[in-house]
Amino acid sequence: MWTPVPDPQAHRPVMVWIHCGAYKHGFSGSPGYDAQHIARDGNVVFVSFNYRLGAPP
User: Fold this and answer.
1) In angstroms, rounded to a whole number, what is the distance separating the alpha carbons of residues 49 and 35?
2) At 53, is the pLDDT very low, low, confident or very high (cuts 50, 70, 90)?
3) What is d(CA 20, CA 43) in angstroms, rounded to the nearest whole number?
4) ∠ at Cα 46 (16, 28), nearest 5°?
5) What integer best gives the mean pLDDT of the chain?
6) CA 20 to each of CA 6, 26, 40, 55: distance values in angstroms, whole numbers, following the listed order
7) Cα-to-chain-centroid distance, residue 25
């Protein structure tokens, strides 16, 4: 989860991104998926998590 400066009174929108890699590729915490700039520039709380749709190896 990424957020601009924490402020409980801000009432920011929440953006959710679901990473799905079919049990094969990447994860939401990969440095290439760092969303700090989206949270800061868009003034949103950005939440990401892993959800695997493929069968386990």
Assistant:
1) 12
2) low
3) 25
4) 70
5) 82
6) 28, 8, 24, 12
7) 16
d(CA 20, CA 51): 5
DSSP state of 32: G
CA distance 2 to 48: 9
**Tens of pLDDT, residues 25-52:** 777 777 878 899 999 999 999 998 877 6
**Nearest by Cα to 42 from 9, 6, 14:** 14
Length of the chain (residues): 57
Rounded CA separation 38/3 (Å): 9
